[in-house]
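== Folding the chain ==

***
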Amino acid sequence: MPIRLDIAPDLASACGYAGDAVRNMEKIYGVRLNYSLASLAQVDRTLGEWREGGATLEAVTKSLYAFGSYAGEVLLRYARGRWTEPKEEQYGNIDDLFLFVTLHDGREWRPIAIAVHALLDGPEFSLDKSARELLATKAVSVRLQH
């Protein structure tokens, strides 16, 4: 099942994709996304409805990108970090194909990939749960003894 990478968000467009998610959720579902952590649960519910309704990846690719970008922008309001470009790959593991958030302490979160997985692989992939888990944990620092 191919996914269109040519329309995937980049550093310049992630914020715009997030705005698309906000506008479309209000227009289509009457739901206001407010960039809060709690709003990610609504995104998860919508992804679940699509999955259960049989939505195809091809039909909702751009919306998945918008939801993932929205989730990334939510996280960046709660933690210091930035969007990071993936390596220049056009195939491979879904987790490695899209922009991701890198926190100031080096931890990474891949909300666009999580949104794709939520549609394809089921409810164990949750933007809400994974964001909360990331924010609740601290980076582990390993010191080597000489």
Q: What stands out?
A: Residues 38 and 128 are 7 Å apart (CA to CA).
